[in-house]
Automatic annotation (TrEMBL):
A single GO molecular function term of this UniProt record: nucleic acid binding
Superkingdom assignment: Bacteria
Name of protein: Error-prone DNA polymerase
Family to which this protein belongs: Belongs to the DNA polymerase type-C family. DnaE2 subfamily.
Length: 133
């Protein structure tokens, strides 16, 4: 049976993916202002002194990067996930300004525990003497 957080990747085996998330390569599809969910590894956190408390996150998935804007109010609400999360799921509104696309965060979820699923061998990949059940 397939894990609830896994889906079939066209080029390979099952891999963890939060439900209902767009890949970075799909962010040009929704119209400006559409509510979307994205997920990826946190590769950059920026809090410029001139940004008046705004946090900029960059997430990376297997298709590219997603720029996230976290307003101060959202940062205060989701502080732990923003600071400590290695992999995040962000729900928010698309802001499409030509070639630059951002997601304005409304919800931020730390899904770092899903990284462990990437390392877990599937029973069918274990040698017969290691399989149980």
């Amino acid at each position: 049976m397939q894990n609830a957080y896994a889906s079939r990747h066209s080029d390979g085996p099952d891999w963890p993916r939060p439900p209902s998330c767009l890949m970075a390569s799909q962010l040009k599809l929704p119209p400006n202002g559409a509510r979307v969910a994205v997920a990826g590894l946190v590769i950059l956190r920026q809090r410029p002194g001139t940004a008046k408390g705004v946090i900029f996150l960059t997430l990376e998935d297997e298709t590219g990067v997603v720029n996230i804007i976290v307003w101060r109010k959202m940062y205060e609400r989701f502080r732990r996930a923003v600071i400590a999360g290695r992999m995040l799921r962000v729900t928010g509104r698309i802001q499409n300004d030509g070639d630059v696309i951002h997601v304005i965060a409304e919800e931020i979820e730390d899904i770092s525990p899903m990284l462990d699923l990437l390392l877990s061998p599937k029973p069918e990949t274990l040698s017969p003497d290691l399989q149980t059940g």
